[in-house]
Amino acid sequence: MAETVRRILETVGIRTERFYIDWASAAEGPRFVKLVTDFTERIKNLGPLGEAEGTSWEVLKFRLEAARKLCKNMQFRAQYGNLAREIKKLGDYSPENISQLVEKKLLPRIRKQVLEAEIKELLSQGPQALEALQEQTGATEEELKTILETLKKKESK
Amino acid sequence: MSFEPRILSFLCNWCCYAAADSAGVARFSYPPNHRIIRIMCTGRMDPLFVTEAFYARADGVFVGG
User: Fold this and answer.
1) Which tens digit of pLDDT belongs to each residue from A31-85?
2) A50: nearest CA in chain B?
3) Which DSSP symbol is given to A150?
4) Is B1 inside a domain boundary?
5) Complex-level ipTM
6) Alpha-carbon gap, residue A148 to A144, rounded angstroms
7) What pTM was computed for the model?
8) Is B64 within 8 Å of A61 when comparing Cβ atoms?
9) Contact state of A40 with B50 under an 8 Å Cβ cutoff
10) What domain count does chain B have?
11) A14 neighbourhood in chain B, CB within 8 Å
12) Which of A42, A44, A69 to mutate to test the interface with B (most CBs of B within 10 A)?
């Protein structure tokens, strides 16, 4: 879960430090206070959403909307569930292993969805050069190609 | 005026939520920036919750298990 969220945030362009997961048992009041205080301090240093990222809220909102749709998408959720099952079967819960598997199985899908939404929006504002699209979205050439192809297919339908 | 972040916390009913409670009983003070949502288990967390939180303009998301 945590790794998937981090990948989504990375793709959207939000600092992963803004998401934090940790453990404190019911008896560990002081530890909880410390965790919460430290986290609040870190967020204070980062500033409001979008400031440390150097991205305007409009852009972030747009990408988050795409990420939201992705998280609700049944296909993605099935992939996510299958991955969890696979990790359980392997019995290897090390962060490296999970990170690797998430990168391999879920990241392409996350990137595709978010980039596709953004490119669609940019193109609706008028024609764009390939290089400009690449620079704005941070997509690789290959990703751009497949996304443009799917958009074309959707349009002709 | 200094920046006061809005942080959304998801706390597990059995662990962190109880810890927050005991911290309150013991009169420890902690920052008031957290809006707490109690979930019955950290296993209930879903990537959707986090994206939804950021979409609602939270500055940070904390998950306590």
Assistant:
1) 999 999 999 999 999 888 888 888 888 888 888 988 998 999 898 899 999 999 9
2) B59
3) H
4) no
5) 0.88
6) 6
7) 0.83
8) no
9) no
10) 1
11) 54
12) A44
Say if the Cβ atoms of A8 and B50 lie within 8 Å. yes
A24 touching B, CB under 8 A?
yes
B56 in any annotated domain: yes
Q: What are the φ/ψ torsions at residue B33 (nearest 5 degrees)?
A: -80, -10
Nearest by CB to residue A24, choosing from B26, B51, B64, is B64
Q: Would the pLDDT of A27 be above 90?
A: no
Amino acid at A118: E
Specify whether the CB–CB gap between B51 and A67 falls below 8 A: yes
Distance CA A35, CA A66 (A): 31
Distance between CA atoms of B12 and A54, rounded to whole angstroms?
33
The string of DSSP letters for A73-139 reads -HHHHHHHHHHHHHHHHHT---HHHHHHHHHHHTHHHHHHHHHHHHHHHHHHTS---HHHHHHHH--
Supply the range of the domain harboring residue B30.
7-64
Taking a C-beta distance cutoff of 8 angstroms, is the pair B57, A49 a contact? yes
Cβ-proximal residues to B29 (8 Å cutoff; 6+ apart), any chain? A33
Residue B28 maps to a domain: yes
Q: Is residue B2 part of a domain?
A: no
Report the distance separating Cα A71 and Cα B54, nearest Å: 13
Q: Is A148 helix (H, G, I), strand (E, B) or coil?
A: helix
Q: How far apart are CA A74 and CA A82, in angstroms?
A: 12
Q: Identify the residue among B50, B55, B57, B63 best suited for mutation to test binding to A, counting A beta carbons within 10 A and taking the highest.
A: B50
